[in-house]
Amino acid sequence: QRLSPREREVLRLLATGRTATDVGRTLGISAHTVRRHAANLAAKLGLHGRVALARYAIEQDLVRDEG
Question: Model pTM?
């Protein structure tokens, strides 16, 4: 499935272990909107749960080493 730039950014940030609140602050959106993006991503990709989303992000090379 093709992900929008916003979906990729939300997914990347969630996969780094940030909370919905942290992601929301970073992107200037509410935590509720972040959770809605995550739910939409899971449905779009046929995945269940945050761990599966994080695994997908890593496999798709969406997570960068920022250390």
Answer: 0.86
